[in-house]
Amino acid sequence: MALRLIEVFLPPKDEYRVQQALKDFEVLDIWQERFSKEFIHIKILITSEDTETVLDILNKHISMVEGHRIILLPVVASLPRPEIVNEEMLDNGESQPENNSKAKKGRISRDELYANVEEITSLSYVFVILSLLSSVVAAIGIMQNNVAVIIGAMVIAPLLGPNVALSLATTLGDIDLAKRALKANMTGILTVLSFAALVGYMFKVDPNIPELISRTKVSLGDVILAMAAGSAAALSLTTGVASALIGVMVAVALLPPLVVFGMLMGQGEWQLAMGAMLLVLTNLICINLSGVVTFLAQGIRPRKYGDADRAKKATQIAIVLWTFLLILLVVLIILSQNGWKVHF
After folding, report:
1. Which of 127, 103, 87, 1 shows the shortest CA–CA distance to 51?
2. Which residue among 179, 196, 204, 212 is buried most deeply as judged by most CB within 10 Å?
3. CB 266 within 8 A of CB 199
4. Which contacts (CB < 8 Å, 24+ apart) does range 264-267 have?
5. Would you place residue 89 in the very low, low, confident or very high pLDDT band (cuts 50, 70, 90)?
6. Euclidean distance between CA atoms 182 and 178, whole angstroms
7. DSSP one-letter code for 277
8. pLDDT digit string (tens) for 318-340?
9. Would you list the DSSP string of 222-248?
């Protein structure tokens, strides 16, 4: 059972707001202390499943209080262990909390999810360096036909984060997060492509290397794989199991086809490069489409009612757009498997 501790800081005169907010909500425990004349400190122990509901209720009641602060902390353990009341035993007609948008079982709160996604989407020199280093490792692994080295490059590469962030931004209708995600995504892709094209231009790369040629062909199996990996990425974040992202990075393999695409462009092998580009686009489209669908299925919604319509419209547009592009890619894949080629 995962627990969370919410700490609330606000002026003593507004203490009643917290009591009023939680009067119909049964928390595991609650403490308070006054550590100065200006502020009172309230601690609330809850389960992770109740976190989003409690945060929304508190935000509604004290968001107008000047100088307030709400802090959410994970709880590793609590002794004695708190007793969890069975929800079926409470189904007796008692009053319910005013906000009944309780998170789905096993899902972390919207605010925790947002913080986690922001962390893996942060555009910094570390992000650029990791993108460059993963490109170096991938290029060496591909030229040496070394699967283990290529897998290492997949793990290093930070390209999955911005795409998952874009899916979350679409689901929440968050324009600022979408802009940051797109900026990080484009920066990472351009960094990888630039280095790979330089490698392809400066060094002779054998286009018959098995690990290279395998990433110039796209099949419907790659579409299914990318959809499953994108959904797994979103699910691992919403459930707080971030360690599962390592496996997703390897499964979806965004980096190697991108490096292959750049090296083949540098070599002037345009026909093979188009196959690698199709694989890159397939992965990007499927990750974003399945990510949006998974976030919706997990009940991720904006906190404010005013943002709900905007988020709904953004989600509908995104699903239609990603689905259209996916259908277009599937058609191209089928045509390419039947002997159709692109000529330059």
Report:
1. 103
2. 196
3. yes
4. 264/200, 264/205, 264/207, 264/212, 264/216, 265/193, 265/196, 265/197, 265/200, 266/196, 266/197, 266/198, 266/199, 266/200, 266/201, 266/202, 266/205, 267/200, 267/201, 267/204, 267/205, 267/207
5. very low
6. 6
7. H
8. 899 999 998 988 888 887 777 66
9. HHHHHHHHHHHHHHHHHTT-TTHHHHH
Q: What order of strands is seen across the sheet that includes strand 3-10?
A: 29-34, 40-47, 3-10, 69-75
Which residues in the chain belong to E strands, given as ranges? 3-10, 29-34, 40-47, 69-75
170, 314 in Cβ contact below 8 A?
Answer: yes
pLDDT, tens only, 91-128: 444 444 444 444 555 678 888 888 888 887 888 888 99
Q: Which residues have a Cβ under 8 Å from the Cβ of 155 and sit 6 or more positions away?
A: 246, 249, 250
**What does the block give as tokens for 81?**
């262990």
Q: Which two tokens stand for residue 189?
A: 């892709």
Q: Which of 155, 180, 135, 153 is nearest to 245 (CA)?
A: 155
Distance CA 80, CA 113 (A): 28
Which of the two residues, 245 and 11, has the higher pLDDT score? 11
Residue in the block written with tokens 């009172």 = 40
For helices 160-172 and 175-202, give the axis angle rounded to 10 degrees: 160
Which residues lie closer than 8 Å to 101 by C-beta, 6 or more apart? Answer: 52, 53, 56, 299, 301
Decide if 104 contacts 298 (C-beta within 8 A): yes
For residues 82 and 66, give the distance between their C-alpha atoms in angstroms, rounded to a whole number.
Answer: 33
Question: Quick one: tokens of 242?
Answer: 């971030």
Rg (CA), the chain: 24
Structure pTM? 0.79
The CA-to-CA distance between both ends of the chain, in Å, stands at 59
